Amino acid sequence: MSYNTRQKEILLKFLHENSSEHITVQEICNFMNNAGTPVGTATVYRQLDRLVEQGFVRKYVLDGRSGACYQYTGNDSKCFEHYHLKCISCGKLIHLDCHLLNEINSHIFENHGFIVDSSKTVFYGQCVECNKIQKGAEK
């Protein structure tokens, strides 16, 4: 995908329209192929790397088992100011804005001299939906 191509426009539009989601490269490739604009995986990775460098897209690498996912942030820097929850059952990534965690950040800095990078801090556990499914299966 060169600088101003139809593929890049379609990619950006797809990411923007799905900005509340965390999208994988495979999902992007599937969308592009279904949209009649096939694109190679390496090309998508290159374009995403550029968009990450430019600050329009956020890359999440959460564990060693699954690939990275991406989210369109535009010029919204708020995504870098909160924690994330990762469901170990379904893989969902949840943005968490919580004033109590801000207090923990303050405590860690004031008492331990350490600045936490909340954009890279992920709590692993089970989301509400998966918890309900598991509890239903145990009955």
Describe the fold and architecture.
There is one protein chain. The chain has 139 residues and is an alpha+beta fold. The chain folds into two domains: 1-78, Arc Repressor Mutant, subunit A (Orthogonal Bundle), CATH 1.10.10.10; 82-139, Ferric-uptake regulator, C-terminal dimerisarion domain (Dna Ligase, domain 1, 2-Layer Sandwich), CATH 3.30.1490.190. It is built from five helices and five strands, in the order αααββββαβα. It has helices at residues 6-17, 25-34, 41-54, 99-112, 128-138, and strands at residues 57-60, 69-72, 83-87, 93-96, 122-125. It has a three-stranded mixed β-sheet, with no helix packed on it. The model has no long low-confidence stretch (mean pLDDT 83).
SSE map:
Layout: H1 6-17, H2 25-34, H3 41-54, E1 57-60, E2 69-72, E3 83-87, E4 93-96, H4 99-112, E5 122-125, H5 128-138
Parallel strand pairs: 3-5
Antiparallel strand pairs: 1-2, 3-4
Short structural summary:
The protein contains 5 helices and 5 strands. With 139 residues, it is of the alpha+beta class. Strand 3 and strand 4 (93-96) form a beta hairpin.
Number of strands: 5
Give the assembly state of these chains. Answer: single chain
What is the architecture of the largest domain at the second tier of CATH?
A: Orthogonal Bundle
- Percent of residues in beta strands? 15-25%
CATH topology of the largest domain: Arc Repressor Mutant, subunit A
Low-confidence stretches: none
Overall morphology: globular
Strand order of the largest sheet: 4-3-5
State Rg: 18 Å
CATH superfamily of the largest domain: Winged helix-like DNA-binding domain superfamily/Winged helix DNA-binding domain
How would you state the average pLDDT, rounded?
Answer: 83
- Give the number of domains: 2
Question: What's the level 1 CATH class of the largest domain?
Answer: Mainly Alpha
Helix content: 40-55%
The secondary structure category is alpha+beta
| Main sheet: strands, sense, barrel | 3 strands, mixed
* Order of H and E elements: HHHEEEEHEH
Straight-line N-to-C gap: 52 Å
> With helices defined by DSSP (H or I, 4 residues minimum), what is the helix count?
5
